[in-house]
Amino acid sequence: MAIAATIDTGSKPNAAWGAVLSMALCVAMLIASEFMPVSLLTPMAEGLHATTGQTGQAISISGLFAVAASMIITTAAGTLNRKSVLVAMTSLMSLSLVLVAAAPNFAVLMIGRALLGICIGGSWALATAVIMRLVPERDVPRALALMYGGQAIAAAFAAPIGSYLGAMFGWRAVFWALTPIVAGNLVWHMVALPSLPAHRRQDFRTMFGLLKRPYFLRGLIAAMLSWGSAFTMFTYLRPFLEQVTRVDVATLSILLLLLGCAGFVGTWASGRFLSGSVAPLLKLPALLMGGCTLGLLLLGGSVVAAALFLALWGAMNTAMSVIWMTWMSQNAADAPEAAGSLMVAAIQASILLGAVVGGLLLDGLTIVATFVGSVVLAGLAIALIGSGQRLLKPE
């Protein structure tokens, strides 16, 4: 194939947009698979005879394995063709969904989620580096926005459809429904992705080298705080809406759909307006999403107010990924796979800690305490980022 040839030589005069679209669907399935328990938390807990907080750990266990996989995948893959690695990760996602859907008990559920974590860590660690090879440098922000459009699709439809179908057919049927879509994505990967031979063997010294750069380390910590704030809140959104806003299943599904559809606005805006220095935008996710969480704490008893805050939160949720991955592509272009591994590890660690701490606060105190914890993390992120200039590579 002509496209494969151009990418193999590194010249890439033509953008492989079909491959970018297959990556977008993969992102949609990763997000849907990872966070589907958010919309099904209560019925899953009942079906597995566990507490809501314990079932929330099904998200944290995938995060734990994603952290480990993201740190070792680029090194363990060695000189393997990156297309083969992505195909293998997508196959693993399919197996994970089958295990979760058929889980007879909580232990099997956690095994399935652990396998998903490996897929998440491996896929995300390579995603941005692969996008940087599929399109010319000038098109990277637009390609990232298109890929993260898959996140918007998952956020828009996975949670509300999962909540609705879960109420009609049971939560297991929701996970079974995802398996043929992932199988189709696997075939698309095999057809659309060009050959992506490894440029050089990665090792941990490259990662340690990045961590020695003060601007990159500050950015990594700021990203962790931003995502930690977001998912301390998002993981336990359904219990909040049930207990504080007091919505029924139909209203819950509508609110989750609104949150997800707003993600299309965030993806469109980030792809259209993100250019030049990303510094001024780095604190925007924590500022807006933390503000929305605070608004829910103060006015969450109103369905109308909750809808407004969730729409704003959802728009920034998808934009956050594009903003931070663009920062990574601009400030670690000399080691994109190592930087991708560190970024994914940091993000997944923050999601893991958010789910764990949020669950402990929920079970030990109240859902309000969980949301307060989210606001505190957002405040720490804003303070660290400041103007954003200290997170940029020196000229």
Automatic annotation (TrEMBL):
TM region positions: 15-38, 58-78, 85-104, 110-132, 144-167, 173-194, 215-237, 249-269, 305-327, 339-361, 367-386
Principal location class: membrane
GO cellular component: plasma membrane
Record bears the keyword Membrane: yes
Major facilitator superfamily (MFS) profile domain ranges (all copies): 19-391
Keywords: Cell membrane, Membrane, Transmembrane, Transmembrane helix
PROSITE patterns: MFS
Keyword Endoplasmic reticulum in annotation: no
Molecular function terms from GO: transmembrane transporter activity
Membrane topology: Multi-pass membrane protein
Annotated compartments: Cell membrane
Top-level taxon in the UniProt lineage: Bacteria
Classification via PANTHER family: PURINE EFFLUX PUMP PBUE, PURINE RIBONUCLEOSIDE EFFLUX PUMP NEPI
Name of the protein in its database record: MFS transporter
